[in-house]
Amino acid sequence: MEARSEDTMFETSHVLGAELASSPLLALAWRQCGLAAAAAATASFAAEEVDDVLYVAFSGAGSIQSMIDSDCFFSTMPLASACGRELFSPLVSEDGDVETVLVQACALQLFFSIFDTPQFWKLMETMKTGNKKVIFTGHSVGGSLASLVSLYFLCSLLSSSSSQPFLLCITFGSPLLGNEALSQIIIRERWTGKFCHVVSQHDIVPRLLFCPQNSISIQLIICLLQSCQFYMACPLLAKPSSQSSSAHKAELHQFISNQITPLCGEQKLTSHQQNSKFMPFGCYALCSNEGMVCIDNPIAVIRMLCLTFMTGSAKLSIEEEHLCYGGLVKKASHLLMQKNKIDLVGDVPRSNCAAGISLALKASGIGVEDKRVMDARQCLEMSMKTGRSPSLNCANLSIRLAKITPCRAQIEWYKACCDSDMGYYDSFKQRKASKRDSKVNMNRIKLACFWDDLVDMVHSNQLPHDVHKRAKWVNAAHFYQLLVEPLDIAEYYRVQMHKTKGHYLAHGRERRYEVFDKWWRERHKGLFEKDDRRRSKFAGLTQDPCFWARVEEAREWLEEATSNCHGNLFKLKLICEKLNAFDFYASTLVEKKEVSVDVLAPNSSYNVWLEEWKVLKVRLGLQFRF
Questions:
Q1: What gap in Å lies between CA 459 and CA 453, rounded to an integer?
Q2: Which among 59, 66, 140, 174 is annotated as catalytic?
């Protein structure tokens, strides 16, 4: 009997939570947060090395004054262009249609307040030169600051092409930091595993930014953060159990519950979430008195943050809930010494997957009798399935790639048939209504559809995070580009599109080719810096995929120069300088054998242009020096 697909699947969020709880990382990070709070009056961070790992904890004390001055807790600022400094430039996408990366304004202001200090730069230099294992951490707004410092450090390494050392950012009770664009970029750069956000079941601070702007008094938030900052710095004092009355606590808890209720039952991005400025990123460790679960799907994180908050009732004051992480971390590690049992209602779990989900629900603080248990179960199932889908999508794409390979092979055969006369670029551009030419054009369109689908899936995070760095896909995309883009250029000029839209390079190039250029450059960064190699024979495909577009522009310049031989000499000189520059570029490619033999075919557009350019140079020899 064939097993169902679910029988072979495992739900691992509770396993990851147990692994995290069993390590000393959380306890040491929380201890460092206390040291940072105690030193907040004199320093913005506290650093300590433990077992060859450098723990750096940041305090959010400086953000409280900025919130008082500018009311910026709910506001956002562009990350890359803030204050005119491109500190996070690698996070700016080259695609103009991608949403701007925004982050919480008070966290970014706090980052800029420490960025120019000598202590911060000394810390950065120590990390870059010492190749240390580093853990950034912070509690509350200090966690937001730790996330921004981690992003800056990752961006600086990305810009310098340096190898990335071990880096982990652990936050406790931190508010949401950025928008959906930031969340997607972190997924795309494979940085999800570098951020771990620990959130307790009834802590309101990580959930505040789900509420509309100005729906909660900023004075209440300031009072809460000031109180927690004080007790973090003085842990031996009695906890602030009486800071908020029971009625006030219940009222605030109910208000936040009402605001986040629409987020609990949806399995995809809703209009409520789309209107929100903030989106989770990284891995979230949701902890309760029953254990800890780890989730990294942003939509699942939103739903579980809301569902766990609305399940049960908070037994501690608002301040205590925000300060309880030391005890929860300690208790989570102790729970591993005991055997967790699944509360059974009715039948035994039908599969390993169902059993894992039951354990995850219990660890997150949601019991089998809670009214939200079915929503939480569906959320974890959705998170598990979407976690597998990128790999499955990639496998399906590999199958599709194999199926369209004959289309590429037929174009290669077409090129080989045309190389001896005028080359396949000019043959395709001047084609008639033959069956062979129509077949090649149809194959060109089929290949374009496949590669457009792949680019769309990459940008919507439906494929593995590193697909644009895998040799298989980078090389296949590059070969397709070198083979087929000349045909796209030929079609563009064949139908006279350049006369209505402008030349191909500036106005007609498809987005996929720009994406493939970027993939190829990133994978072969060192190759482009110093490449003095010489080929022993001409390349199979011209290594500049836009070579024929440059030829078409040069042909137009040549026509313009020929018709203005006795006209405006200044204009003529400018045109000739552009022609001379292209001549040098093209002859260099030919000398290095970076072009295919079709470029040098007797009747190719390039050869025709070259002969006409030589004639024009002779005619203009008395006026200009070449």
A1: 10
A2: 140
454 in Cβ contact with 519 (< 8 Å):
no
> Is the pLDDT higher at 319 or at 419?
319
E strands present in 27-132: 45-50, 53-58, 76-78, 102-104
Least confident of 142-146, 233-237, 310-314, 337-341: 337-341
Place of tokens 């010489």: 534
Q: Is 563 assigned a catalytic role?
A: no
CA angle 368, 204, 26 (to 5 degrees): 80
Q: Both tokens of residue 484?
A: 């087929």
Catalytic residue among 14, 202, 253, 322: 322
The whole-angstrom separation of Cα 516 and Cα 479 is 10
Give the whole-angstrom CA distance, residue 40 versus residue 62: 8
Q: Among 233, 244, 242, which Cα is nearest to 204's? A: 244
Helix axes 325-335, 25-38, angle to 10 degrees: 170
Q: Per the residue annotation, which of 202, 203, 227, 426 is the catalytic one?
A: 203
Residue 10, classed as helix, strand or coil, is coil
Question: For residue 20, what pLDDT is reported?
Answer: 86
C-alpha to C-alpha distance for 28 and 223, rounded to whole angstroms: 28
| Residue 54 phi, psi (nearest 5) | -90, 115
Q: What pLDDT score was predicted for residue 443?
A: 96
- State the Cα–Cα distance between residues 287 and 291, nearest whole angstrom: 6
**Is residue 493 within 8 Å of 429, Cβ to Cβ?**
yes
Cβ 143 vs Cβ 292: under 8 Å: no
Residue 77 has pLDDT above 70, yes or no: yes
Single-letter residue type at 226: Q
**CA–CA distance, 92 with 85 (Å, rounded to integer):** 13
Higher-scoring residue by pLDDT: 544, 269: 544
Residue keyed to tokens 């509770």: 14
Cα–Cα distance, 617 to 625 (Å, whole number): 9
| Rounded (5°) CA angle 297-469-589 | 150
The residue-averaged pLDDT of 219-245 equals 70
322 is catalytic: yes
- Written as one string, the DSSP assignment of 594-621 is -S-GGGG-TT-HHHHHHHHHHHHHHHTT
What's phi and psi for 195, nearest 5 deg? Answer: -125, 125
Task: For residue 503, indicate whether it is catalytic.
Answer: no
Give the span between the Cα atoms of 613 and 495, in whole angstroms.
25
Three-class SS of residue 274?
Answer: helix
Q: What is the mean pLDDT of the chain?
A: 82
250 is written with which tokens? Answer: 């219940």
**Tell me, what's the pLDDT at 354?**
78
Place of tokens 């937001």: 144
